[in-house]
Write a structure and sequence with these properties.
Elements (H helix, E strand, L loop, with lengths): L12 E6 L2 E6 L14 E8 L6 E3 L12 E3 L16 E9 L7 E11 L2 E11 L5 E7 L2 E9 L9 E3 L2 E3 L11 E3 L4 E3 L2 E3 L1 E3 L1 E8 L9 E5 L8 E5 L5 E7 L2 E11 L2 E11 L4 E7 L1 E2 L1 E10 L12 E5 L11 E2 L5 E7 L2 E8 L5 E7 L2 E2 L5 E3 L3 E9 L3 E8 L10 E5 L6 E4 L5 E7 L2 E8 L10 H7 L4 E5 L4 E9 L5
Parallel strand pairs: 6-14, 6-15, 17-23, 25-33, 34-40, 38-40
Antiparallel strand pairs: 1-2, 1-3, 3-4, 3-5, 6-9, 7-8, 7-10, 10-12, 10-13, 11-16, 17-20, 18-19, 18-21, 21-22, 22-24, 25-28, 26-29, 27-28, 29-32, 30-31, 30-33, 34-37, 35-36, 35-38, 38-39
């Protein structure tokens, strides 16, 4: 069925994945389809049709939570299964210069997304113009968008003029207030006229260069949400660099170099105006290691069966990162290599019934806030405890009846929430939870909840249920599903 018109869709390709079987049929002109002699158990069904976004039943949704699954039981055929497909949204247009001539340009869509509980914009699609300057961006979901165009063709680097980029409605920094609403299943036209803007040089010197220097490059990079691309250059043997053709705006000087298994990196933000920017000082820092140790507090005098659990340092800055954890022979000490200077939080997932009671670096909580780490540090002191509790949740709808496939959120002050999908009977139980105060929610789309925005939660988060979980307790709660409001 068409999700916007509720009309049947003809000739849809429907694929069934079951136990040791995959089959595909084509729906008839009234949208009907069927499979027979299917092995019992859980099955996944995918439906595809040109002009529509893919949909189905029993497979992961785009937000990581499952659609209502299909369970086949012997002697109980399943009838009247409905699959709703959403018509694709499309943006078309043309890019020309101020003389009306077509431009070889790259057009990018920035889509409103919720990341780590905060709404931001991410690049989600792009297309190049054809010889007439026309572009078409298809397979888009409905929502809020900013569309940006930037010329691919650039003249010699010595030129002091370039075609500037444009964003519609824009600017990107304006966030949702600067975005347009793209309706589901609609084609929207956006045209661009790019004007000439002055360009400048960004020059400077880089220190900390390796002795056995190989080819070493440096780039100016736009912020993650900007479609401005990069401006690369080479670093001379004496450490000097000159990046030409730079348009005004916020940039980051970025370089990485690997020597003998050691990573050298630099990130320096710069503001570029209408004049050359000289004497930018950049220093290459070595990536470093952060050490840690794990201590067990067990009420049962036990220890996790597998003490080498998943653990990582995570930064909100996409340009920062750290290597994969390496455990010591004692299974209680660890090293995280290749950490670049920046702000990090700790993610840790010990096996139940243990939970992370605390994780600190120099006495600062790594679980509830980002901590600045700019050089070799440690130890990160992690305490695991098994005096955990559990919360047993029943999700209901407006009619107080069990409701399946809700995104159930377990929110504790300052912590990243736990999110899980309720079962077909509306039930979900999460174990190995730290004792403390929780707020439990059931959402129709938990990945769109702006839990890190206090104003948003104050407006829309009143439907949750508070739970004070004691050590060793299993709390029983019933919560009604609520809908995430449209942007």
């Amino acid at each position: 069925m068409n999700s916007t018109t509720n009309e049947p869709i003809p000739r849809v390709h429907v694929t069934l994945n079951g136990l040791n079987r995959q089959s595909t049929v084509i729906a008839d002109n009234s949208g009907h389809w069927s499979f027979s002699n299917v092995p019992c158990g859980r099955v996944q069904i995918m439906a595809t049709r040109p002009g529509f976004l893919n949909g189905g039943l029993g497979q992961p949704h785009i937000d990581g939570l499952p659609f209502s699954p299909v369970f086949l039981i012997s002697g109980s055929p399943v009838h009247d299964v409905k699959i709703q497909l959403t018509p694709q949204s499309v943006i078309v247009g043309k890019v020309v210069d101020d003389q009306g001539d077509p431009i070889n340009a790259r057009v990018t869509t920035l889509t409103s997304r919720v990341i780590e509980g905060r709404r931001t914009f991410q690049q989600t699609g792009n297309a190049n113009t054809n010889d007439l300057g026309e572009f078409r961006l298809a397979n888009l979901t409905g929502g809020k968008y900013i569309v940006c165009a930037r010329a691919n063709e650039r003249g010699p680097e010595e030129n002091s003029i370039a075609l500037g980029e444009r964003c519609y409605p824009g600017p990107v920094e304006g966030g949702a207030a600067s975005a347009m609403e793209l309706p589901a299943g609609r084609e929207t036209r956006v045209d661009f006229t790019l004007h000439e803007v002055p360009t400048v040089h960004v020059r400077g010197t880089i220190s900390g260069m390796p002795k056995a220097q190989g080819p070493l490059g440096i780039s100016l990079v736009k912020p993650a949400a900007s479609p401005g691309g990069t401006r690369p250059a080479r670093i001379s043997p004496d450490g000097r660099f000159d990046i030409a053709g730079v348009t005004p705006g916020s940039w980051t000087v970025s370089t990485d170099y690997f020597e003998g298994g050691v990573r050298l990196t630099a990130r320096v933000p710069v503001e570029v105006g209408n004049a050359d920017l000289d004497d930018v000082a950049v220093h290459l820092d070595s990536a470093f290691a952060v050490t840690g140790k794990v201590r067990i507090e067990s009420k049962s005098s036990g220890a996790p069966a597998n003490r080498q659990f998943a653990l990582s340092l995570r930064s909100s800055e996409p340009m920062l990162g750290a290597g994969q954890i390496k455990w010591g022979a004692d299974n209680a000490s660890f090293t995280i290599p290749d950490v670049t200077p920046g702000n990090y939080r700790l993610d840790a997932f010990p096996p139940g019934p243990f939970y992370v009671k605390s994780a600190t670096l120099n006495g600062v909580d790594l679980l509830r806030q980002e901590v600045s780490i700019v050089q070799s540090a440690g130890p990160i002191e992690i305490v695991l405890s098994d005096d955990s509790g559990a919360i047993d949740v029943q999700v209901t709808g407006p009619d107080d009846q069990p409701l399946a496939s809700s995104g159930v959120m377990f929110l504790q002050d300052g912590m990243r929430p736990r999110i899980a999908a309720s079962a077909p009977d509306g039930h979900i139980k999460i174990q190995a939870l730290a004792p403390g105060d929780y707020r439990i929610y059931a959402w129709d789309d938990a990945q769109q909840v702006e839990y890190a925005d206090a104003d948003w939660m104050q407006r829309y988060g009143g439907g949750g249920v508070s739970v004070s979980l004691q050590a060793g307790q299993t709390a029983q709660v019933t919560v009604k599903q609520q809908s995430v409001p449209t942007q």
